[in-house]
Amino acid sequence: MKVTTDGCLFGSYIADAIQNTKYKIQNCLDIGAGTGLLSLMLAQKADILIDAVEIDKPSYLQAKENFERSEWKERLNIFYADILHFNQGKKYDCIISNPPFFEDDLKSIHLNKNKAKHEASLTLKQLLISVDNILNDDGIFFILLPYHRTDYFEKEAANSKFYLLEKMIVKQTPNHDFFRSILLFSRKKNQVKNTELIIKEESGNYTKKFNELLGDYYLMIDS
After folding, report:
1. pTM of the model
2. Are 118 and 56 in contact (CB under 8 A)?
3. pLDDT digits (tens, 9 = 90+) for 194-220
4. Are strands 76-80 and 49-54 parallel, antiparallel or unpaired?
5. Gap between the Cα atoms of 43 and 134, Å rounded
6. pLDDT digit string (tens) for 77-89?
7. For 157-195, what is the HEC assignment?
């Protein structure tokens, strides 16, 4: 799996939010961990225990290797499992997910790509049910979505009694349309914080806001 720019942005947003949040986070679950990018980015910034779940065997093995080679390996665990049947007998203060994308878009003939990018193995409704089952009453839930799926997910989340706390919508450049949304939910209603982020200026350079978020992760950025 590629390490995508929006995936890195999501990981840095989560880490920044947890560092500055009023919520007390002691553990976190990464649903659909892929090769472990989000968990590793969070572990770099937050001194918490992180479990990760991945259903694709090659991705699970790669994440396992990545975790074992990291300096935060004592706080990272990866499980080869389907989140729909995942049960560790505990609940989490925080859940993060970069879930399957593009339910209504053209699907690949390759099954593993369908699992990674589509709702072939996990629908957004199923994801919400899973989160509801294992998130603490005072817990928070982060998700990265295609922009065109945002309204739909917000409505489904509200039906499951999850309320939007933060929303960042993202575009590649000032001339592009929005293409991703980063959403933060909890079970308690509050005023919603809405922000926008542009990844690159028209010149091709990263924007100041992007630099601030990714400075501790990207080698080409001075933090």
Report:
1. 0.89
2. no
3. 999 999 999 999 999 999 999 889 866
4. parallel
5. 20
6. 999 999 999 988 8
7. HHHCCCEEEEEEEEECCCCCCEEEEEEEEECCCCCCEEE
